[in-house]
Amino acid sequence: MPPLALAYIGDAVFEIAVRQHVIARPNLRPHHLHIQSTKFVSAKAQARMLALIEPQLTQSELDIVRQGRNAKSGTVPKNANVLDYRHATAFECLIGYLYYAGAHDRLRGLILQGFELLERDNETNTNDR
After folding, report:
1. Number of domains into which the chain is organized
2. What are the residues whose beta carbons fall under 8 Å from the beta carbon of 91, sequence distance 6 or more?
3. Is 129 a member of any domain?
């Protein structure tokens, strides 16, 4: 399957994972849910999450990431720099690949680990300011 098709489905799968993650926490007001979700679904956040989980990836997963990163989407990112956008596409491509490969336990594990690492990374960066 082409990398951009994998990224397309990966975007949807990741969106559901983010919504499940956010709704499992206290404070279920719609505006709060939206604010919390954007901490995970932005191109910058997805690129950072990919960087954080990358040491755990297998060689075949790294190959998928590379293909996703190098795929030419033909669109210009509105709210992200090009590098973050390409890495976010690579992350979504990985998610789509794992979903279609039926590697749901691996998919779930990497996403949960990514959430944990990203939240820890955000806390560290906030405390450094």
Report:
1. 1
2. 10, 14, 46, 47, 49, 50, 65, 68
3. no
> Has 11 been annotated as catalytic?
yes
- Say what the pTM is: 0.89
Residues 27, 16: Cα–Cα separation, whole Å: 18
Domain holding 82: CATH number? Answer: 1.10.1520.10
H-assigned helices in 42-103: 43-53, 59-70, 82-100
Instruction: Tell me the per-residue pLDDT of 21-62, one tens digit each, with 9 for 90 and over.
Output: 998 887 778 887 888 888 888 899 999 999 999 999 999 999
| Per-residue model confidence as pLDDT tens digits over 4-20 | 999 999 999 999 999 99
Report whether 65 contacts 7 (CB < 8 A): no
Candidates 11, 84, 121, 128; catalytic one: 11
